[in-house]
Please model this.
Amino acid sequence: MDGEDLGESAVLDVLDKQIIHGLVTDARIPFARLGAILGVSEQTVARRYRSLRERGMLHVAGQVNTVPLGRTRWILRMRTAPNRAVALAEALARQPDVSWVSLLATGFEVTCVCRPRSVERQDELLLRMIPRATQVLELTVHEVMRQFPFAEEWPRYSRLLTAGQLRELGPRPPMWEPRGPEKSVQLSREDEAMLAILGRDGRASYAQIATATGWSSSRVARRMSELIASGVLYFDLDFALERMGYVSRALLWMRVRPGDLEAVGRAVATHPEVAFVAATTGTVNLVAAVVCHDTAHLYRYVTESLGALPGINDVQVLSALRMFKQSSTLLDDRKVGVVP
Model:
């Protein structure tokens, strides 16, 4: 066993990790199929999944990619007074189209990702609500130009499956390119009802969604497949990182020479510590979220893995003092929980 896996072995065994990899690859894979691939029963997979959820180890959620809807994503950095930072972060975490809310170790900077679904909501968030908040002393807004895809999503447990199992599981659907489709996707009221349910539980049954939308289960399945194919709907997993042994999380803001930006972004996306990397507008043009076991691990990553890449002119390392929200779930006592 790799020494860096020891911290998480107390809460996740090999089968847990194999199931997690299956869900990362296909969040809605039937438990019977996943069990057959892993050589265990459907009941065993279902029981392990329920345990992971009940222990607050993971949460599966359907997410809306705003690019095919003709919108974009924004990363916000807000400077605030130290005694107001927690209140600001908590208020942002309650917004449904705001994610990855964190308080950085400086003690007075809060960052988040905004994914407004309309021009009106974008203006409300970026031009009125957040700038007018009394806690916000300074606001910097970065547009996400390109999110770099991973060959394997974090936490990267494919090494625990055989080549045959990986072939049976199949590849994760490719990340939707930021250019978007030829024509913006339009969502109906029924689509919105389905997306709301999947946002709370990415594995909600077709029957449950059918009841909320008035559609048949077969129509729900067909429409879900269409939204996935269009890039509007994708599935994400949130994890209780500290309980898995990852206590050092950081945002890295980099200045990269424009001609090297694509190559550096692709290279950073291959690093096992990296959970997100994107090219942005603004005074820095590359941002990465990294997950490490401890500060020494973070130091090794910055000086060795990142330091070996040509083209990076400057790196600002900002450790996360506290995470308030991940992609769709609020954090409480190091567990993940569904947003009300």
Observations:
- The CA atoms of residues 54 and 337 lie 10 Å apart.
- The first helix runs from residue 6 to 9.
